[in-house]
Amino acid sequence: MFNVDNIRKDFPILQREVNGRPLIYLDNAATSQTPQQVIDVIVDYYSNYNANIHRGVHSLSQEATDAYEQAREKIRAHFNAKKSHEIIFTSGTTDSINLVANGFSSILESEDEIIVSALEHHSNIVPWQMLCERTGARLKVLPMDENGELLIDELDNLLSNKTKLVFVNHISNALGTINPIKTIIDKAHKVGAAVLIDGAQSCPHIKPDVQDLDVDFYVCSAHKICGPTGVGMLYGKEEWLNKMEPYRGGGEMIDQVSFEKTTYAGLPHKFEAGTPNVCGGIAFGAAIDYMNSIGFDNIANYENELLHYATEQLLEIEGLKIYGPKELTHKTSVISFNVRNIHPYDIGTLLDKMGIAVRTGHHCAQPIMDFFKIPGTIRASFMFYNTKEEIDQFVASLKKSILMLS
Ligand code: PMP
Predict the structure, then answer these.
(1) Cβ–ligand 1 contact at 28 (below 6 Å)
(2) What pLDDT sits at residue 122?
């Protein structure tokens, strides 16, 4: 039974005050909060079995290795990858995308094309621009409409037998738009292009099945899904991971090293040079357990209720404009908005004084802001531990801020 009051007890941070007011945390799209169950796993690791993994014969090293590899297996099961060595631990979404962009350096040729959507976070744009500079390949952009939804039919005009890779986010961090990734994957595969899905924003709301999607690469960060920062994952189909060159050289990723020639380890170690974030990986697994104990259907239903509740109230405020899909079934619990010509930063600062955390700015998505000809927005993003009472408080404080700034 989904009970938000009980769930909130799992999150110690939700008990604190900010500027003398109870914290109302609505910046979940930037990073989610961490439940006690995950904090306990982190404390247990450093209290009881902190050790370097994979190489040690001693017990602590064995225990840490087992826990780390069990976490990889949990992640595999959660995303329904076929094999656990198709899950590569990284430091997060950005790192995972850079790993794939680097891997494609030796696959792309100068006549090749790659396609990005107009709705991307900078971390799903810049590594590909750098790849184009290295290889001479061309970057094309799938456009969007005024509602912040991709013009999916345009993809047919962009795709050709020159297209080698298409990369889009599942959900836009700036607008909350849910993109039709299955259609994109199917269309791209028809011309033989691989597809990378940036799941940074979808992983806390939707449980994807990478085999059912038939996606080539799927990336996400643990800190968006109630885990710690500094750890994330790349799922890649085995055949692609085998084709790609390693991203970083060093310990752990080798088979044999001599000054004449080095051979690389097999998957997943080929892409995991150096001592990894052992504790982070284990806590990532614990975060996935936690999310599954709440249940992704429960999470989606409840967050959808919050989205409707907040949208209705916000739209009653004179001069408030919400960016992104009008049809709420096309988005998740992210509301990006502006009020008349008041600068988002001013509203964000006043809300903070009242204990309310929202994000203001371009949300690492400047092309989207340029499209709407605005410097930025105020973004309120909800998770399953937020409440309708918090939304009431947020709307009342927003109205107060608008009055103060008018
Ligand atoms: N893509 C999207 C859609 C995101 O929302 C984010 C995080 N804001 C990222 C990529 C980058 O994630 P990280 O900073 O954890 O690498």
Answers:
(1) no
(2) 96
